[in-house]
Structures are given as C-alpha cells and as structure tokens.
Amino acid sequence: MKDAAETMKILSAYDLTKSLRGAAELAGCSHHTVARLVRARDAGQTPGSGASRPKVTDVWLPKIEEWVEASTGRIRADVVHAKLTAMGYTGSERSTRRAVAEVKAAWRAGKRRVHRPWITEPGAWLQYDFGDGPAIDGAKTVLFVAWLAWSRYRIVIALRDRTAPSVFAALDRCFRLIGGAPTYVLTDNEKTVTVSHVAGVPVRNQATVAFARHYGVEVLTCQPADPAAKGGVENAVKLAKADLVPKDTNLRDQYASFAELEAACAGFMAMVNSREHRVTRRRPDHMLAEETSALHRIP
What we know:
The protein is α/β, with parallel strands linked by helices. It has helices spanning 4-17, 20-27, 31-42, 61-70, 77-86, 93-108, 164-178, 206-215, 227-244, 258-273, 284-291, and strands at residues 125-132, 142-148, 153-159, 184-187, 194-198, 201-204, 218-221. The strands form 2 sheets. A 5-stranded mixed beta sheet has the order 3-2-1-4-7, sandwiched between helices. It has a two-stranded antiparallel sheet with strand order 5-6. The chain starts with a helix and ends in an 8-residue tail after the last helix.
C-alpha cells in the first residue's frame, strides 16, 4: 500500500498527464495502481486507504471488550483465547492476541463503546420473566418462562401466583431440569428481587439474597430499555403465550384442570427445545448437553 506522499505524487502525475500509463511512468509504478487510486478519489473515498477486510475476531470484539473492562485491562490474551474457544471461536491465538492488544489500547485511551451487543457464555446466564396464563375455573394462572441464554433452552412452568415462594420453587425446578445452576439469574425489577432503590442503587429482597446464597447464584435485574439482554426471554414469553393460552389463533380448548396446563407446558418445552433455533442453527436440547458441564452443582 502506498503512503500518503506516494499517493499524492501519483495523483498529481495523473492530473498532469491525464493518462494512466503516462502517470505510471512519471511516478514509477504500475498503471493499475494509478487506476485504483483515481477510482477511489472519484468515488469520494480516501485514496490509498484500501478496503478493510473482515477479521475472524470482529464478531467477538464485544465480548473481548467486556472482559478487558471487567479486568481493568489485566486479562491475558491466552486466557481470552481459551474462553473464546470454549464459546465456538475458530480463529488462531495470534489473531486473538492482536485483537486483545487493540482492545486494551483503546481501553487505556478511554475509547470504550457505549453499547455492546450481548454475547453469551455457556453456563453464565439464565433469564426469567412472566406471562399471563389461562384462567382455570375462574382463577388466573401465571406462566413462568426461563431462558438459558447460551443454549436458548426454554422452560415454561405454570404457577398460581407470582409470590416469592412460587418463584423460588420455579427457579429450583429450572435448575434441576437443566442439571445445575448458572452464574447469574437475570430478571426485571420484580418486588421478589428488588424492594426499592436508594440513590439509584437497587435494594434486594432479603429472601432473594438468601435464596441466591443457597444456590450459589447472583440475581441481577435488567437495565431499562435493554433489548440486547431482555429480548430473548421476552420473545420466549410471547411464544409460550401464543401456544398455551387458548385463543382464536390457536384454537386450543380451555383447560379443565391445573394439571392439564402443566402437561401442556411440558409438551411445549419438548417441542421448542427439539427444533433448530434460527440463530444458532442447532437444537437447544443438544446445546444444553454441552452447557451442562459449565453449570454449578445445586444443593
């Protein structure tokens, strides 16, 4: 690639001669080089800058930035490479080292991105949310929907209410269904999790704190208007409600008992977890078999 001085010399020669070959003779380069620089200038591009080629590390940069920031710039490149490889990265360690060096340089210069797409890690995140379930004998029900973020494995449990004991029982069942506990449990600012905010800092429900300590998880709440983190479980809630709640669009019969609703939830889980996910192009139940090894043991 020509430097700035050579580029200007070549373009000046072309402006003088109006000939590709004439400019090439004056500048001492190939007429193909002259043509490329002239085309770039005429297209409004920076001559000689060249087109940037995609790198194998590009899609992983948000995760590298997250780790560099969390470690205050101390994480080693070989550690990053091992963690990325476990998540499906196929690039070389040399590419990883180059990317980590660039991210660390940007971090030290204070050039951190405001928004980063969420790249999940195996065994790290389980999200849960709620949807209105069908009425049975005049009583409302609740659909507890959980989503294991890396494998996209979805769990739907029918509840009679959203009280803390019901939620804790549903989470316990989730952990046992997936074969372990994740590092983080993420949800909205439910009163079962956050009782208030003081100076913008969430005050956790003490029952939730005790539950989290017992299972060795950290319960976190979503930031407002954060589709990157909340979108997965919210879509799972919409899908569950569309299939399980009787309406004209699915022609499902009304449930005669709570046990029927529980059986329908089990059938829904078997269906959605055994079909290929449109993002990963893999079945969630197959990915769960890999993710289970990254989960923590439950008491």
